[in-house]
Amino acid sequence: MIAPSLRVESLVYRYDPTIPALNGVDLQLPPAAFCALIGQNGSGKTTLAKHLNGLLRPSGGRVLIDGQDSAERSIGELARSVGYVFQNPDHQIFAATVREELAFGPRNLGCDPSEIAERVASALARFDLTDLAEAPPAVLGYGQRRLVTIASVVAMRTPLLILDEPTTGLDWRSASRLMALLAELNQAGHTILLITHDMRLVCDWAPRTLLMHEGRLLADGPTADVMSQAEALARAQVAPPQVVRLGHSLRLDPTPLTVRAFCERLQKGSGGAP
Amino acid sequence: MSVVYDLYQPGGSWLHRLDPRSKLVSTLFLCAVLLLARDPWLIGGLLLLTQGVLLSAGISRQRIGWVWKLALPTMLLIAAMWLLFYRGDGRPLVSFWRIEISTSNLVDALAMGLRMGALAFTFFCFLFSSEQDAIVQGLVALGLPYRAGLTLAIALRHLPTMANALRTISQAQQARGLDLSRGGLLQRARAYVPITIAMFISAIRSAERLAHALESRALGAHPQRTSLHPLRWSPADTWLMALSILASLGWLVWRFLPV
After folding, report:
1. ipTM above 0.90, yes or no
2. What is the pTM assigned to this prediction?
3. What is the DSSP string of A97-127?
4. pLDDT at B50
5. Euclidean distance between CA atoms B175 and B162, whole angstroms
């Protein structure tokens, strides 16, 4: 899998003519990146993400996927490169069975029946949904519906995968399993862009973080660096996890992002001034 | 704001201050005239009147534009259908296949299209200037059971919410490669099936959640309801009612009773 490179140049978007929802966003994602997109509600995260697969068209600036302007491609064409999992599973589910729901995307991409069957079987197995393959997805519990919608986009095997709040409504075990699956896909070469408010998840899994505030990118870099920018985080009304704040208070450098990293750091007993 | 989330636009204009009962009755009389009239000048005049009412009440141009965006395609479709499929009186101006277009066809098609827009804007004059609670109270005061009034008000309140949900669902399915622009009419209609079914599922789930939320806040627990903001009837309401009823009845007599 060779994920496309993605470049966003001076992107501006206005829902209202007077208020820009995106106000000059510049961004570059290399192939096979794993990024978290964070920021308070209304900061422009979803608006930015919807530009990457052509659901929204820029008011100014441009989005380049593998060097090609996304404005020159239809949503259907972009769906081959960019998969998008929406926040609410009920906005996506319509089929009579989970199997049909998963087959919808590959069929739209023009895959032949044997490939559709293989992709669906693989996604069902990957998300532990094989036993529910013939169940109607609309009547499943929220967590399972969430997994069905993610699996249905993963079955499209798009090189770039955008997930809007994928762990909302999932218990810790399901969320961890989902994140491990995403990390696996990333290892296989997929680019993952994760929109989330769960800072622990960001620190646990995302090597790179993009912080948005009022339609602008306030910070962009390795997660540890972004989590160290106290002023920017406060401005964006984002609080790092407690273990990160504790690391900052103890002036540990570099800042440990997880409890495990923190413990290892203490055991080593170096690099800080407690 | 590009998206209308609630039909009511808060304000203190003359229209906002009127009692919902007088506004509703006037709306119904105006609608009766619109449904019975066939003169495009009269219907067009009433459509212009609604624009004046909305602007004088401080309703934003964006909201008015939103209604136009919703109503205009339907207005054009109705006018086109009428023009093509209704056999009018008089000598045809254009004739092809089984379709004949005469002057009376053109006049009727114009009247039908304008009527659709005028009806929509008449109701939006009421809805943009009346709070949900006031609408429920008004309907109950006019004799509707409380639950029916509440259901109607909630249904109206959720129109923009549903329109937004429809847009999101359409985006979600297009993100999975659904192409709404390809193929002939039948293929395009078939492409809307995933959107329609997802919309139904989403609407039913929302309705169920809302019902639980209302019941958990004691809806129907006590038969006697009180109101935090009781309705107030002012002389302006009497004038509006009298004017709209007399004007409507006067027009009906002039139009339909033989001299």
Report:
1. no
2. 0.78
3. SHHHHHHHHHHHTT--HHHHHHHHHHHHHHT
4. 96
5. 20
- Mean pLDDT of chain A, nearest integer: 91
Residue B145 is encoded by which pair of tokens?
A: 């059971």
Q: How confident is the model at residue B6 (pLDDT cuts 50, 70, 90)?
A: confident
Contacts of range A41-48, beta carbons closer than 8 Å, 24 or more positions apart:
A43/A212, A43/A213, A43/A214, A43/A215, A43/A236, A44/A13, A44/A212, A44/A214, A44/A215, A44/A216, A45/A195, A45/A212, A46/A87, A46/A164, A46/A195, A47/A13, A47/A15, A47/A21, A47/A22, A47/A215, A48/A8, A48/A11, A48/A22, A48/A212
Residue carrying the six token digits 């669902």 = B169
**Distance between CA atoms of residues A257 and A244, nearest Å:** 5
How far apart (Å, rounded) are the C-alpha atoms in residues B41 and A124? 63
Rounded to a whole number of angstroms, the distance from the CA of B129 to the nearest CA of chain A is 22
Share above pLDDT 90 across residues of chain B, in percent, rounded to a whole number: 52
- Chain B residues in contact with A156 by the CB 8 A cut-off are 176-177
Residue count of chain B:
259
How many pairs of residues across A and B have Cβ atoms under 8 Å apart? 78
Measured between alpha carbons, how far is residue B168 from residues A19, A55, A74 in Å? 21, 10, 17
B77 contacts B70 by C-beta, under 8 angstroms:
no
User: Using the beta-carbon criterion (under 8 Å), do B3 and A15 form an inter-chain contact?
Assistant: yes
Disruptive mutation site among A16, A51, A75, A148 for chain B (greatest number of B CBs within 10 Å)? A75
Amino acid at B143: G
Place of tokens 């109270």: B137
Count of helices and strands (H, E) across chain B: 10, 2
Task: Go through the domains of chain A in sequence order and give each one's CATH number.
Answer: 6-236 (3.40.50.300), 241-274 (no CATH)
Domain ranges in chain B are 1-130, 143-223
